[in-house]
Amino acid sequence: MVIENYDPLKGQMLQVLDAEGNLAQGFDGVLKNDDVLKLYQVMTLSRMTDKKALAMQRQGRLITYIPQSGQEAAAAASVYALTFEDWIVPAFREMAGWLLRGAKLKDVFLYLRGNEQGSKNMPKLRMTPLCVPIGSQIPHGVGISWAQKLKGENSITIVYFGDGATSEGEFHEAMNFGGVFKTPTIFFCMNNQWAISLPRSLQTSSKTLAQKAVAYGFPGVLVDGNDIFAVYLATKEAAERARQGKGPTMIEAYTYRQGPHTTADDPRKYRSTEEEEKWLCKDPVSRVRKFLEKRDLWDDKKQAALEAECDKIIEEAVAEAEKTSYIPEDIFKYHYAEMPQELQEQFEYFKSTLGGQHG
Ligand SMILES: Cc1ncc(C[n+]2csc(CCOP(=O)(O)OP(=O)(O)O)c2C)c(N)n1
Ligand SMILES: [Mg+2]
Q1: pTM for the whole thing?
Q2: Separation between Cα atoms, residue 210 and residue 11, nearest integer Å
Q3: Atom 19 in ligand 1: which residue has the minimum CA distance?
Q4: Active-site residue (options: 93, 101, 113, 257)
Q5: Mutation pick for ligand 1 pocket among 72, 134, 166 (CB with most ligand atoms within 8 Å)
Q6: Do 355 and 243 reside in the same domain of the chain?
Q7: pLDDT of res. 195
Q8: Which residues line ligand 1 at a C-beta cut-off of 6 Å?
Q9: Cβ neighbourhood burial of 90 (10 Å; 0-12, 13-18, 19+)
């Protein structure tokens, strides 16, 4: 058991794989070599997609892009600890996890191009669409897990949000519901140290974010979010607790947003290069590579082959997304199961003015 052994009120943090790729004693077998290889592949795909998407946004081929680099371990290893029956409620910076769940890269690019077609397959994968209004997805996550409990399902829900979201009312309301109704929920906080330009230190005076769970009557655990082993272990255990009817767990993944907040942001204005360099030394992707190399499971040749494969996947996904036409009606039809009156009126107006002029 790891969750109860790390006290968030004391700032204790679970770390299994250090920045040099060394595994702490007693943790062999938490992830088998094949698991680590699979995680490394998807993290690499996510990292390379990041580079491509940033370049595409600069070329005007994507609307806005939300960089993912630095958070791949937290995203991938948390999803890897779940079953395909479990629901995933994303925020917007967990790409490696969506891909592991089976989301198509083409759909990710469609979403980023403002094409609602990209969200249509998500429910089949037991995923809700990406959620940009900060914190609004957290009550949804609790609601889904409450339904799972009422239906007697064995599945659970993981809901992702950032450090900034913990200052939103929805976070506290959802945590309270989860604690009272003992819902099978994992509250997964990606603490990437920044909420746009607001540093973690100004977000809350709590020592850790994980300790907020204590006030709602369930455990919170702080883990090294750049360590696939720690994230996997904590998520696996939180999922087991939830399945056993023990209620929610909050996980705070201590990580870092290496890039800008979005393509409309310039981090030079509010943080130092020293800070960025310090965190680059803790990079989650190269940490896994070091682990694999130490075990003779990886080399430059394998890296080149993986990168070539990822390049191909990315180029195909981009080509497919760019040739998919828009269905502007989706703006009206997609959001609600039944269109509310106001939207119906706007839809009628749209049809009588702009409708039909799209390509
Ligand atoms: C309700 C709401 N308020 C403000 C914003 C503008 N906004 C977009 S991202 C963001 C910061 C979110 O920080 P955090 O929760 O730490 O997530 P991160 O972007 O770091 O992944 C803000 C304030 C928003 N999208 N929604
Ligand atoms: Mg943040």
Answers
A1: 0.96
A2: 9
A3: 195
A4: 257
A5: 134
A6: no
A7: 98
A8: 93, 132-134, 162-165, 190, 192, 194-196, 257, 261
A9: buried
- The one-letter amino acid code at 135 reads G
d(Cα 341, Cα 44) in Å, to the nearest integer?
Answer: 46
The domain in which residue 341 lies consists of: 328-359
Average pLDDT over residues 215-234: 98
CATH of the domain at 144: 3.40.50.970
Q: What is the pLDDT of residues 38-48, one digit of tens each?
A: 999 999 999 99
Residue 3 has pLDDT above 70, yes or no: yes
What are the tokens at 334? 């997609």
Which of 194, 196, 201 to mutate for ligand 1's pocket (most ligand atoms within 8 Å of CB)?
Answer: 196
Is 6 noted as a catalytic residue in this protein? Answer: no
**Atom number, ligand 1, closest to the C-alpha of residue 196:** 11
Q: Is 270 an active-site residue?
A: yes
Residues 61 and 194 grouped into a single domain: yes
Residues 335 and 312 in one domain: no
Number of structural domains (the chain) is 2
Separation between Cα atoms, residue 70 and residue 182, nearest integer Å = 32
- 160 annotated active-site: no
Same domain, 348 and 303: no
User: pLDDT grade, residue 17 (50/70/90)?
Assistant: very high
Instruction: Classify each residue of 71-88 as buried b or exposed e, where b means 16 or more C-beta atoms within 10 Å of its C-beta.
Output: bbbbbbbbbbbbeeebbb
**pLDDT reported for residue 359:** 43
